Amino acid sequence: MALRTLTDLDDKKFNGKRVFVRVDFNVSVSNGTVGEDYRIRMTIPTIEYLTKRGAKVILASHLGRPDGRDDDYTLAPVAKRLSEIVGSRPGIKVRFAHDCVGQPVEDEIGRMNNGDILLLENLRFYKEEEANDLKFCKKLASLADIYVNDAFSTSHRKHASTYGMAKLVDARLAGFNMRKEVEYLSMMKDNPIKPFKVVVGGVKIKDKIGALEHLLLKADKVIIGGAAAYTFLKAKGFKTGKSLIDNEHLPWVSKALASYGDKIMLPTDHVAAISPADTSITMVKGDIPDGMAGFDIGSETIERYSTEVSGTNGAGMIFWNGPMGMFEVRAFANGTVNIAKSMALAYWRGAKTLIGGGDTLEAMKKSGVAENEVSHVSTGGGATLRYLAGDEMPGVSVLNGQ
Ligand code: 3PG
Ligand code: MG
What we know:
By secondary structure, this protein is an alpha/beta fold.
């Protein structure tokens, strides 16, 4: 179903209106400074569209998982970064409200001029946000003439700001980032360009099973790396030494191998060591010796994976989620760096490339690949995997009147 988005509402209807925009500014903050600000930058087209049309833009987000009000989780550093990004535009000023509901916030909104931006304090300072509490939903909804959701990465949550309040506002629309995410991911889920290849790494298999079940059906090749690969290799009877194994999901992995073994690519050699701190690494083929763990894919595997990703059989579509090894340690970063570079090469050769999930953007940047060398970087971690699994996304369906 097509999403109702900002451009579906008559341009003039935004003028002077309080437009409540749910964004996902859940970014990393350390010592009061925002780290990667990709999620903030992705909301700028929506914010600018609204300010240019004379809306009073009220931004709301969560940050982290605080247990009630906790200054360690204030959105103040995000307000600062947002002002730095939009501040150069004449007349645009970002203000920060020290709460997200209540009289002082209402007063602050009452003082807003058309085109102003106000960022509310962390929604999760109220337990009612995650509980989707009706009274809290009503309080939030009372701040809004129009509701916009531009936070794809939280749309798997049925919270007050992503779901409950939206149902109480007649005019509810998807922002541009939400639309872009849903367009890319739904194309990949339902109608991928062929050949369609998937690269999956990272540690946890559990979070990826739903997405993998769907992707194994649709993809031509599923390339596995990271710690996830050792569980697959164990299921095939290889020795995996001390490598991280997800024993609980071994039965699922065995079934996947039995049904889709011809599509699944696994590492054949590894960078092994006694521990991540051990710099005397050993390159091993096949079995990993007792007392050692695999921390990266080996050079023969890199060669095979890179060739598959960068494409010798025409441009198609490639999705990458999760690093190939413990890339935070330079000695184990080679697999991830090469996959990132191959993704960029595939893009330059005409493939549609998508990356998604938590630390994959960080891994890509550490590998020297820029954001403009990939067709789309999803802002979502959990949400992206849930969407691809075909799970219900309350924050999306509510925009379509459900
Ligand atoms: C994320 O970072 O995945 C989203 O912002 C959702 O956060 P949550 O997992 O704490 O709900
Ligand atoms: Mg998450």
